[in-house]
Design a protein that fits this description.
The chain has about 180 residues and is α+β, with helices and mostly antiparallel strands. About 35% of the residues lie in helices and about 15% in strands. Bound molecules: protoporphyrin IX containing FE (HEM). The site of protoporphyrin IX containing FE has 15 residues, from helix 6. This is Cytochrome P450.
């Protein structure tokens, strides 16, 4: 079944689906952790830039003024040992889960893919709900296998894209 068809199926009873899903999505801890980990290594927005409104000195000692453009590179930050530890290059959703089984909340100045401060992304919760709906519907209907030889080639721009996509084999999951 095409993704469009799945979404039509979802849309047919959308209100009920959404209210059930929002209730359930708070419990989809491992999926939430997986999405955070994907965004840590592959942030949708690669970098952001900010300028101070008045002259200031950063904690690093750098002097900045309103003409200074500070580039915050989320792609690089997501792969820094000093921020994420020795295993920073490993895809490890478990790093987002506390011993008590809840999602570990990281400060936005560490996990900056949604920005930080007063212009923080207003759609973060909605983005997680949408990503969870899409992932849950696809995983429910299909088995997905990566095609091993095909590694994504990143297309460097302000938005992170893959040059040739990411090829996978898709098979219908049997519905019992
Ligand atoms: C994974 C998905 C998303 C990512 C990675 C993301 C990331 C970001 C980032 C980095 C910013 C800039 C924050 C800053 O400058 O400090 C931003 C701003 C914003 N985002 Fe998102 N976003 C996502 C999804 C969404 C969605 C689904 C919506 C709306 C439903 C949304 C609405 C906004 C708005 C309105 C702002 C501007 C906030 C302001 O300037 O005050 N975002 N987002």
């Amino acid at each position: 079944m095409e993704l469009d068809a799945i979404m039509i199926q979802v849309n047919n009873n959308y209100d009920k689906f959404l209210s059930n899903f929002i209730e359930l999505s708070g419990q989809l801890i491992y999926l939430h952790a997986t999405l955070c980990e994907s965004l840590r290594l592959y942030p949708g927005l690669v970098y952001n830039h900010k300028s101070p409104t008045e002259p200031d000195i950063l904690p690093s000692g750098h002097e900045v003024n309103p003409n200074t453009e500070i580039i915050i590179n989320m792609y690089v930050m997501g792969r820094m040992k000093s921020i994420w530890g020795e295993n920073c290059n490993e895809f490890k959703p478990e790093r987002w889960i506390t011993e008590g089984g809840t999602i570990k909340l990281e400060p936005s100045y560490k996990f900056s893919v949604f920005g930080s401060g007063p212009r923080y992304c207003l759609g973060k919760q909605m983005a997680f709900t949408q990503m969870k709906i899409i992932a849950a519907v696809i995983i429910h209907h299909y088995n997905i296998e990566t095609v091993q030889e095909n590694y994504p080639v990143l297309d460097l721009s302000i938005l992170l894209r893959m040059k040739n996509g990411f090829k996978v084999k898709i098979g219908r999951r049997s519905q019992n």
